[in-house]
Amino acid sequence: MLLAVARHDGAAYGLLVREEVSRARGREMSVGAAYTTLSRLEAKGLLTSHATEPLPVRGGRSRREYRLTAAAKELLAAERECADRRWGSAPLWGQA
Amino acid sequence: MSARAHDVGHATTPADSAGRTGATDQALELVVAGLASDQDALLGDLTEGRAGVASAQGERAARHWWRRQALLAVPVLAWHGLVHRPLMWLLGLTGFVAWTLLTALVPAPFGTDVMSYDALHPSLPSVTDIVADTVVIGIGTLVAAAVAGAGTAALARRARLVPALVTAALMMLVSTRSGFHVVLGPGRCEEIDRWTTSCTVELGAASRDAIVPALWQLPTMMTLLPVATTVGALAVVAWSRRRRGVEPAPD
């Protein structure tokens, strides 16, 4: 979820994040689940958000766009480093 | 749906993108709005997603997509509101207490709810009186439930429907407990000795003691009390949306 927000940092919103996550997981995530997860991440201080101006395509409703906080960026960097360390010494199967 | 589909969605008019039809869809939208903390974000996502599906797969698929997503969102939002917002439990409990106090004010015209029965002075109420009292008390209880639901929804600033769910659940539990006690027939009492009287109540289907309250309380009140509470809360959600200038989706 955080990665999906990171890819569109500042312009990520519920529907876009849902599509990213659904594509990455290989199964559909519901709009409601994306909405509640983003709310929870914001409550945990990993995301900040702001509402846009009302948009015609949304029936005159605004979008809530999310951005990663410094804490979330640190968390993602630590996660990446951890994954690199885990995979660093493994042989690369299937490569010539 | 791809980002491209979003761009195509921008070409649709607001009336098309919000073109959900029928009272059922409007009620579903009201429920979702009542459960979401930020209804603009969620309903806007649903509307935008619907417009994308409509341009890619047609109106029928879009309507199906919108309904499915809205229905899927209801339990997720309710759970989210209950787990992550403890204040909602407090508000729900307050609503339940208010409902209990309000129901105490509902009179029974024939007094069968407070009539005292004993073996020495049997005073058996007629079934008609019991039915009349049960109906009056039942309607009063449902109105009180709607008022309690509306009250909790009015007190909550966001996700107005969530505390009403707590109130409704507690009412359901109470309905099962008092199913055979609120308006109960006299039973059959026998004097065992000078100081002891034994009373029994027949709970069979043909019993005049329990059949009326049993039929009224268990299947009916367990269903109608949560419905009345939710309707009261939804009325406040609809009122607050109208106040904010959010009009219901056009037919």
Verbal overview:
The complex is a heterodimer of chains A (96) and B (251). Chain A has 96 residues and is mostly helical. Chain A has one domain: Arc Repressor Mutant, subunit A. Chain A has 4 helices and 2 strands; from the N terminus they run αααββα. Chain A has helices at 2-7, 14-25, 31-43, 70-88; strands at 47-51, 64-68. A two-stranded antiparallel sheet of chain A has the order 1-2. In chain A, α2 (14-25) crosses α3 (31-43). Chain A starts with a helix and ends in an 8-residue tail after the last helix. The mean pLDDT of chain A is 88. Chain B is mostly helical and 251 residues long. Chain B has 2 domains: 3-83, no CATH class; 86-243, no CATH class. Helices cover 67% and strands 3% of the residues of chain B. Chain B contains 9 helices and 2 strands, in the order ααααααααββα. In chain B, β1 and β2 form a beta hairpin. The longest helix of chain B is centred in the C-terminal third of the chain and has 34 residues, at 211-244. In chain B, 39% of the residues are buried. At the A-B interface, α2 and α3 of A face α1, α4 and α5 of B.
Fold topology:
The complex is a heterodimer of chains A (96) and B (251).
Chain A: H1 2-7, H2 14-25, H3 31-43, E1 47-51, E2 64-68, H4 70-88
Antiparallel strand pairs in A: 1-2
Helix pairs in contact in A: 2-3
Chain B: H1 3-9, H2 14-17, H3 22-35, H4 39-57, H5 59-84, H6 86-104, H7 127-155, H8 161-177, E1 188-191, E2 197-200, H9 211-244
Antiparallel strand pairs in B: 1-2
Provide keyphrases for this structure.
heterodimer, A: 96 residues, mainly alpha, Arc Repressor Mutant, subunit A, two-stranded antiparallel ribbon, 4 helices, elongated, B: 251 residues, 2 domains, 2 strands
